[in-house]
Amino acid sequence: MTRRKYILIILILGSLSTISPFSIDMYLPGFPAIAQDLNTTIAKIQLSLTAYLIGISVGQLLYGPLLDRFGRKLPLYAGLLVYVAASVGCAFTTSADGLILMRFIQAIGGCAGMVAAQALVRDLFPVTETAKVFSWLILVIAVSPMIAPTVGGYVTAAFGWHAVFIALAVITFLILVGVYIGLPEGKRADPSMSLKPAAVLGNFWTVLRHPQFLVFTLVGGIASAAPFAYIAGSPDVFMNIYGVSEQEYGWIFAFLSIAMVGSPQLNHILLRKLKSEQIINIALVYQLTVGVIMVAGVYLGLFGKTGLIAVIFLFLIGQGLTAPNASALSLAPFSRFAGSASALSGSFRMGIGALVSGTVSIFHNGTALPMVGVMTVCTFTGILIFFLGRKSAAGYAGDAAVAL
């Protein structure tokens, strides 16, 4: 593979992976305006984010078998078209319940890009390169929160929140064109892969019973859910508690995203000296330490706006180290069932993200404590599972069981 083709594939896969981050982040600055326009509360609008995450979780379980049966591109085209149509529906909804429903459908379509991108990494690159490729994808994904809320804030201020969803529809259609023109097919259709419920469940069970997949999916999914607490709680914390504008919130979000841009590059360096399991260990211990400081500081009232931004920045640095290594280790044992493995991994990650964002909404109390508390609990749970489960996965890490 030439360097030019390598870069092009990374950019396209990264673009597919950014559909959901853009969908999550771009409308965040519009939360107050949406709540006012639809005559509801911000807590109710936060449920549209939860609905999106639930849709991703459910949708990925559907796309996994479809990607294994029909190849990567056909289900991907269908999903992206559903996303475009649902985005237009979000723009023209007239009620909070309608927005929640459209966001769910939007997620069902958009998650095709996420599942296909992960499966294609396994298809197109050798197992020894997947952690590095996932680090590049994490870098591309991490850049999107720097752009999405900032652009969303200005679009909302200039044209209203409806225009944000029109922009998402246009961006995704352009990504679809890029997939058609520049992305290799990857694993082709496999007629032997049955779509009957018993066969699909059997494939999922084959994946789930592999110790390496189970341990690192649980660790990566739960620990990586911490940013969803931040995403769900930050509009209220910064715009209502600290009184920042939509545009200023976008810049704060962009600044905090820098924390997740640099860490994947650090991961590239660390992988030269350390194994993925060692990096996960270091990252989780670091995040738990920062998380405890963050919760204590908020509870004791030690942080103002600037202090809270600083400690969240330090916390998020660890995300770019845990996620790519956990993803690479969970998918490494699979070739034939890469689509199903990717779907299960992504479904769990987004399902936990939905639970986390909903928890922040439930415990909303007019302070930053629910947000930072849930972030820290995610990290603590992830590190607990890592220490309890890594022995059962010993001997599997880094191996590629191509028969699976």
Automatic annotation (TrEMBL):
GO molecular function: sodium:proton antiporter activity; xenobiotic transmembrane transporter activity
GO cellular component, one term: plasma membrane
UniProt keyword Coiled coil, yes or no: no
Residue spans crossing the bilayer: 45-64, 76-94, 100-121, 133-155, 161-183, 213-231, 251-271, 283-302, 308-331, 343-363, 369-388
UniProt keyword terms in alphabetical order: Cell membrane, Membrane, Transmembrane, Transmembrane helix, Transport
Organism field: Rufibacter quisquiliarum
PANTHER family: MAJOR FACILITATOR SUPERFAMILY (PTHR23502), POLYAMINE TRANSPORTER 2-RELATED (PTHR23502:SF132)
Superkingdom field: Bacteria
Annotated protein name in UniProt: DHA1 family bicyclomycin/chloramphenicol resistance-like MFS transporter
